[in-house]
Amino acid sequence: MIKTPAIVLVKPQMGENIGMCARAMLNCGLTDLRIVAPRDGWPSAPAEAAASGAFDKGVVARLYDTTADAIADCTYVLATTANTRDMVKDVFTARESAVRLRAETGQAAVLFGPERTGLGNEDIALAGGLVTIPLNPGFTSLNLAQAVLLVSYEWFTAVDTTAPAQFRTGGAELADAAVISGLVSRLEEEMDRGGFFRSEELRPTLMRNLLSFFARSRMTHQEAQTFHGIVSALIGLRRK
Amino acid sequence: MIKTPAIVLVKPQMGENIGMCARAMLNCGLTDLRIVAPRDGWPSAPAEAAASGAFDKGVVARLYDTTADAIADCTYVLATTANTRDMVKDVFTARESAVRLRAETGQAAVLFGPERTGLGNEDIALAGGLVTIPLNPGFTSLNLAQAVLLVSYEWFTAVDTTAPAQFRTGGAELADAAVISGLVSRLEEEMDRGGFFRSEELRPTLMRNLLSFFARSRMTHQEAQTFHGIVSALIGLRRK
Hints:
- Two copies of one chain form a homodimer.
- The first copy, chain A, has nine helices and eight strands.
- The first copy, chain A, has a seven-stranded parallel beta sheet with strand order 3-2-1-6-4-7-5.
- Chain A is elongated.
- The first copy, chain A, folds into two domains: 6-157, Alpha/beta knot, CATH 3.40.1280; 177-239, no CATH class.
- Chain A is of the alpha/beta class.
- At the A-B interface, helix 1, helix 6, strand 8, helix 7 and helix 8 of A face helix 1, strand 5, helix 4, helix 6 and helix 7 of B.
């Protein structure tokens, strides 16, 4: 079994943010959380509260003194950074990083820096590559858990096998073409009786457009019945 | 210039969450925030504080009484939902939704429900399609701002395009939501007068389904006119 990437929080400040990171991770199937020298200590009640149960449901948090300790078993390490640095490294977008992380057969890790300052150069130096999350250049203001969420989400969706866009009917049966043309024919008949077509010239185009409307609507059987009922109500068949 | 999609928060509870949503949006270049009946009121000091300056740097927030008001000018509306519903709609992943949103030439909008409950069926009925964010099925616990972030991020990063499959109107103008709800209201009125509702119990579901049908139909202005004409013709029969 492939190991999932570790998320390494380097010197995070608020316990609440650690909890939010755990929650973001587990949403995306990540469970290996490594915490380096957290300012407010560990374990942490605010972290527990903010995690929405993520620590009970799968996320395992471990505490380390240094970044080097935290990544000691890793074969591939990426460092997240908002700015390009004058270091010689591969730079990936978050989406590209997911592909790289998925390809790693050993233990991979992604480093995230403290809330205010981000990762320092000494931590970035430990990484094999950099990750930048593409964002609005005029307003780059992700919080720590949001950055963790986006990287984790990209990792999760890199094998997203969710079926592509589909039309969902919730079990309802779709009307077939005969039902639809039957409805449109009845409509035309009643429109005729109601004096809709003041000029015969307009009829072919208008009826074609109406059929086209219903044909593209992906109407269910139930909806076709409803329309028949509406026509009946409007023409007064139901008036008693 | 293409309009950016509006983010519509339906009955959000905490001001702080609204602020976090604004912050998430602007990170991804979105600025059109529409707030429907926020529990804790608007404007909001906690929202301002949580926004990290997003309201000063580009996000414009507007307040509405109802979801229908908030989307009145929209030609394409998506509803986010964690669960599949028994509604007849296109279903997109967040990534697919971005392609679809980019393809819309009119005003698009994405609806997000209240923190605890998500969107109700009456709001989902207003949408032309659904968005689900693919997540760990064992732990689906995004907060509101995180859901907004992921949808916004997908929109922002979807800039690459090869033209997606688009809905072609042949130059016809699409009806906006106000036109569609106006048509459905008139239909209901005439259905009532025609004795359609033999039982009042059925009315809410039936009308919601009818609205849902027209909301997903991508009706043009011309087609809306035609339907009004049909209704007029049919009710004319009743009077004779």
